[in-house]
Amino acid sequence: MPQVFSMQAIAHIQSGFPSKFGVPRQSGLVDALEATLIFEPEFRNDSALRGLEGFSHLWLVWVFHQAVRPTWSPTVRPPRLGGNRRVGVFATRSPFRPNPIALSAVRLAGIEHTVQWGTVLKIRGADLVDGTPVLDIKPYLPYADCIPGALGGFAAVPAEEALEVVIPPGLWERVPPAHREALRGVLAQDPRPHYQNDPQRIYGFFFAGLEVRFTVENGVLTVRDIANAPPDRNRA
Amino acid sequence: MPQVFSMQAIAHIQSGFPSKFGVPRQSGLVDALEATLIFEPEFRNDSALRGLEGFSHLWLVWVFHQAVRPTWSPTVRPPRLGGNRRVGVFATRSPFRPNPIALSAVRLAGIEHTVQWGTVLKIRGADLVDGTPVLDIKPYLPYADCIPGALGGFAAVPAEEALEVVIPPGLWERVPPAHREALRGVLAQDPRPHYQNDPQRIYGFFFAGLEVRFTVENGVLTVRDIANAPPDRNRA
């Protein structure tokens, strides 16, 4: 008799990424990346947030809503191993697990009162697609959640895939100043799908209302174009 | 239109605690406390665990199955504040949240092949009741999950509630040696319900097939009796 539990989204994320392309692989890699957590109307209750301001970081428990597959995958090929080696799904943070639940530690940058959505949370360092459903928010407790000596297997250290980023000034001007630091961080993290490595290919993704196109060669990412994204590409 | 997601237990916990009484408040507080994670038959697949042995710690995403209430509680009174101050539920790790999802970082002590249950995980430092349903297992990634400088609000440091533990030798003999260190750790963590503080009262809980009764006065816990628990009290 399988035990089944029904979970309801209590909030969703508003972020600059309409799809997973370009999203950093884990939370915290690009602190400049800002997102907003908007509670669903049923869960807009300011007293539920009382005391949250004392915590600098939060756990978000969310749903891989774009990774819906009819079944789970016992093994996957994580990007960290070049996309060629299969490991067990439970040894990874891959979306293709039996229950599409994800976990991200994000920085709480602010608690803001808005007219349209009630009280929202401003978060930093989020690896989240626009529209991501959130099941729970928990305070990050350093004494229970931080295990600095933990052995991280094949993912022991952050991937050394930080690219050098070259952006022609003419293109950089097209990026609203508020998004520049975040965009630079996202590019340094190598937004290419898995470990593709074709110096001739022009890659692209959408972020913060822009379409960004680039090439990568010898560890250097060069931006080739930045344009306003078509309106239908701005939201997930 | 609320978004609802159906989650299925992929495993359950086998532990020495038939109920939440006596369970340490967070994972990691008592490393000697051992538990076993047993996969549900549908999810017994050794290839899904390939590579897990490289990680020293895991995240368990589980369900507060004993904390079922018809609705959630926007504010709660955490034990850390003496049980008298109300804070928002999202500023705590209380069970009484909209979705009864919990998070624990545990130490992976072993991956064991059994005849009865296939491959099981031996874990340490678990704050888990026997029978707890598990929704997901993730590797603990120090570079993403450990934030040593995080500010922990009112829960910034572990509670200084470690009690001095006094166990008469005659009673200590009744504890199987394999469980002694764990029991001592559990007692030091103060198993009394919330911040009860009646020196006259004899408290009790069940652990590892034993019924343990004790009193607490002036920071000293004295064990008053240890007996074999009635058979119906051994399982959740």
- Here the CATH topology of the largest domain in chain A equals Elongation Factor Tu (Ef-tu), domain 3
Percentage beta strand of chain A = 25-35%
Largest interface in this structure:
A-B, 73 and 75 residues
CATH superfamily placement of the largest domain in chain A: YaeB-like
Query: Can you give the mean pLDDT of chain A?
Result: 91
Oligomer: homodimer
Strand order in the sheet with the most strands of chain A: 2-3-8-7-4-9
Question: Mind telling me the C-alpha Rg of chain A?
Answer: 19 Å
Task: Indicate the structural class of chain A.
Answer: mainly beta
What is the terminal separation of chain A in angstroms?
37 Å
Secondary structure: number of strands of chain A: 13
The sequence of SSEs of chain A as H and E is EEEEEEEEEHEHHEEE
Helix % of chain A is under 10%
How many discrete structural domains of chain A?
2
Main sheet record of chain A? 6 strands, antiparallel, barrel
Uncertain regions spanning at least 5 consecutive residues of chain A: none
What count of helical segments of chain A does DSSP give?
3
Note the overall shape of chain A.
Answer: globular
Give me the CATH architecture of the largest domain in chain A, please: Beta Barrel
Instruction: Give the class-level CATH name of the largest domain in chain A.
Output: Mainly Beta
